[in-house]
Amino acid sequence: MRSGTKTAIVGGVFLVVASGVGYGGYNLWNGVTGGDTTVGTKTDAAPKTGPVTGDEVQATAKDFLAAWAAGEPEKAGQLTNDPVTAGPAVAAYRDGASISKAEITPGTPAGATVPFTVKATITYEGVSKPWSYASELTVVRGQTTGRPLVKWAPSVLHPKLLTADATLRTGVAKTASVKAVDRNGDELTAEKYPSLGPIIDDLRKRYGSEVGGETGIETWIDSGSASVPDSTLLVLSKGKPGTLKTTIDPKVQAAAEKAVKAYGKAAVTAIEPSTGAIRAVANSPAGGFNTAFLGKQAPGSTMKIVTAAMIMQQGLAKPGSPVQCPATVVWKGRTFENLKGFSSTGDLTNAFLLSCNTTFIKPVKPLDDKGIADTALGDTARRSFGIGLNWQVGVETVDGSVPESEGPETAASYIGQGRITMNPLNVASLSATAKDGRFRQPYLVSAELGDREFAKAEPLSPEVHSGLRRMMNAAATRGTAKDAMAGVSSPKGAKTGSAEVDGQATSNSWFTGYSGDLAAAAVVESGGHGGDAAGPVVAEVLRAG
């Protein structure tokens, strides 16, 4: 065979097409060597070391794909660095997905990575449909043998096989079909809004039969976990979809998808403060982990919205009260400082718009004398903002957490560090509550679906409500959020944040704000200052409202 020609059909239904990987005169029936000519011969030579060579990458990729195509899972497994796991996974690929034939076409290697495409036909109970996708494999050197081996991961077989428990399945769908629609009644699809793919799958799993849907025949990723929804890859025959209305605003959703694509890892959520309706949710990368709803990260200085409310509720200061903003402050033996060691003088509003860390620690010290410093923030978060309650959004979400703290951790929690965890959904709700004056639990579908009961919290007092809006407006018009919010319509308010993460050189960028009847929050991993990365994401979403 010559490079660029098709091989004979291997294993009856599978074949490998030569392309970027050079096949030379290699015969697929001649045994698999992984590019090592010493396999099967006695040698006293020490195992090879160092990076794999280009020839080894090509030969190993060729041999692995040939064994996979030939229906020889044990042989394919032995060409990986985890044969115990890889062999059974390759064996399950064809049977689990009911693949009747397939072509595997390698592409041109990029270093040790070889891309390839799979063009398959899936047949189930007399129904057939073509199916194609792209994946890749990486060749590494075996630690003990020195042989070039495929670095095993389930995603080698399909890029959406992300865990060892996930498998490909074809059959009668486990859940009824749904047609998820936006607030206007237009269909939502993962093709148009990639971030909604996993969410639509979750909605289908929860409410498909409840909205009158009927099952069809599909190929899907079975996650192997009750808490993770399956993901449909191919519909061989449609069932009868039931219509499921969501709160998504198509214009805001499109803006959210576009905004997060500018960053490698980012997430944003938008909420309508007057109702709690979720208008948009987007993640980058799209279709993967839903950081916007499921993340558990320190929210940084966006937490000062809650801390400011606590300060006012406890009678420690009002927006116009003079407060100190020294460069550093000590709490229980630990020194906390402002960004770049700045200091300032003025009132609480000035400290908020400058995001002065020390102001949100120093004035709270009297609560320590009362014995409530460790619990006051969590009480305010739960009682006034609904954080820590059981939110019934309609899909899987993670509730924010503001646990009781002690020692220096208490001071850290006041500025959004310590053990506090949030995601953009939670932080967007902080802004929505500050804007509206009352916590309205965010929701994606009506409470009637699943007979859910929304979480409730106490309304903010008029003084605290007006105080928060005054401070957030100051931050948006003449503070750290000014540049990002410059093109956003009034009435508006915002708060920046940056959160330090252990082992991460640059802090996560956080930003939350509102404009009119729309509130949003975003996080950009390693984005630095809140106004630099997350700020533009939120601003783009708010402008679409």
Extended strand count: 19
Strand content bin: 15-25%
Count, helices: 14
Low-confidence stretches: 1-13, 18-42
Reported for the largest beta sheet, the result is: 5 strands, mixed
What does the radius of gyration come to?
A: 28 Å
Outline:
globular
Provide the spatial order of strands within the biggest beta sheet. Answer: 1-2-3-4-5
Briefly note the structural class of the backbone: alpha+beta
* Helical content (DSSP H or I, runs of 4+): 25-40%
Tell me, rounded to a whole number, the average pLDDT: 90
- N-C termini distance: 60 Å
Please outline the helices and strands:
Blueprint: E1 14-16, H1 54-69, H2 73-78, H3 83-97, E2 99-106, E3 113-124, E4 127-141, E5 148-150, E6 167-172, E7 178-181, H4 197-207, E8 217-222, E9 231-237, E10 242-245, H5 250-260, E11 266-271, E12 278-284, H6 291-294, H7 304-313, E13 322-325, E14 328-331, E15 334-337, E16 344-347, H8 348-354, H9 365-370, H10 376-385, H11 408-414, H12 424-436, H13 462-478, E17 492-499, E18 508-515, E19 518-524, H14 534-543
Parallel strand pairs: 1-2, 7-10
Antiparallel strand pairs: 2-3, 3-4, 4-5, 6-8, 8-9, 11-12, 11-19, 13-16, 14-15, 17-18, 18-19
Helix pairs in contact: 5-14, 7-10, 7-13, 8-13
